[in-house]
Amino acid sequence: MTVSHENPANPKTGASWKNWVRFLGPLVIMGIAALLLRDKMPFLATGYQEVLSAKPTGLVLAFLAVIASIVVMAEVMHTLLNAGGANVRSRDTLQLTFIANSWSATFPGGAALSAVYQFHTMRNWGVNVLVSSWFIVVSAALSTVWLIALGLISVFFFGADFSLWPMLGSVAIMLGLALLVWWVTNHPEPAKRFVVAVIIRAGRIVRRRPTKILDSIDEHFGQLDAVSLTPGKFSWVTLLSLMNWVFDIVAVWLCVWAVTDVLPGFRAVENNTTVLGVVLAFVTAKIVGTAQITPAGLGPVEAAMTGSLVAVGMTASSAFGVVFVYRIISFALITIIGWVTYFISVARGGMHVGSMSS
Questions:
Q1: pLDDT tens digits for 164-207?
Q2: Residue 185 within a domain
Q3: DSSP conformation class of 224
Q4: Do 294 and 300 contact (CB within 8 A), yes or no?
Q5: Count of domains for the chain
Q6: Distance CA 168, CA 57 (A)
Q7: Where are the transmembrane segments (predicted)?
């Protein structure tokens, strides 16, 4: 039996024309600026020519790789929510992943809006507060761990100078957080006793009995009894989180091939880069994009990725062409797909959750 729920998280249902201006504005401004500066910055004109002559096969494969990265993240959501006792279909988590990605990419600070949107949608599906929050924490922790790990590996083997200990410390903290969440999930009673003891001690210090807080803690930890995240499932989710980044990096790698007609390997060739160079440029751009001063980091992300690709061996024109086609695929096309999905699946009737997961 299929149960239909109206989504309560329709922030002013349907993005208004102002939102679309905010979304497309930076991209249009960048295009106009590049056009006006083409004579003063010759690599832009050369880059445009490389874009126009890019291999269609490489671009199509890059697009499929980006789609694959979205699909595996949707499977992370599907696996974790079902481990938490929520009977959610893969199709629904895939729709939500596309939509949440569009919310994140469209607005400055979109990552926070995306997390809120996902949380409200999951609550609308009947997922309790604790499991919804638990999914967001676990998925974010694993994603961050793998991004840092990929950056560490690429920098280390590429031979660049870097500060090892801060990166190792970041990996250890995020991995520790993910493992702590996994342990709490599978051992709620000891975790509850510890949290209750801390709350009671704090209550004594401020001379107040935290009755309501204790009742809430008891309720939330009681909900964890429904969560069953075995080591096998945790390992599977961890692998999927890694593959999300791998598929995205493969998309950049294929864009390099499409634009330059050279598929990067492990040995550098003249005016091109290596697999590790592609990884390093990708991670650098992702780190820069986390600030999201502009929608999807438009501007800073392109500058960071172009500069990184040049630093690892590519010409400025080729790097510009690669970044241009990659961002059209991974940002513009995927965001449009997400908004189309939003209007079809949410604005016109709400998300649907079946009684059986697929």
A1: 566 566 667 667 766 776 777 777 778 778 888 888 888 888 77
A2: yes
A3: G
A4: yes
A5: 1
A6: 38
A7: 20-37, 58-78, 98-117, 129-158, 164-184, 272-291, 303-322, 328-347
Q: What is the dihedral of CA 273, 153, 331, 260, to 10 degrees?
A: 10
In a domain? residue 207 = yes
- Residue 7 within any structural domain of the chain: no
Q: Which residue intervals of the chain are DSSP H helices?
A: 17-36, 42-52, 56-83, 90-106, 110-124, 129-158, 164-186, 188-206, 211-223, 231-260, 275-289, 300-311, 316-327, 334-345
Structure-token match 């905010």, residue found: 22
Q: What is the Cα–Cα distance from 166 to 77, expressed in whole angstroms?
A: 30
Characterize the bridge pairing of strands 2-4 and 352-354.
Answer: antiparallel
CB-based burial label for 195 (10 Å; 0-12, 13-18, 19+): middle
In which domain, by residue range, is 340 found?
55-348
End-to-end CA, the chain = 13
* Distance of alpha carbon 147 from alpha carbon 144, whole angstroms: 5
Tens digit of each residue's pLDDT (9 = 90 or more) over 33-79: 555 544 544 444 555 566 677 788 999 999 999 999 999 999 999 99
| pTM (2 d.p.) | 0.73
pLDDT attached to residue 337: 92
Token digits for 340?
């189309």
Is 12 among the domain residues?
Answer: no
pLDDT at 291: 65
Convert the pLDDT of each residue in 263-288 to its tens digit: 888 887 787 888 888 998 998 888 87
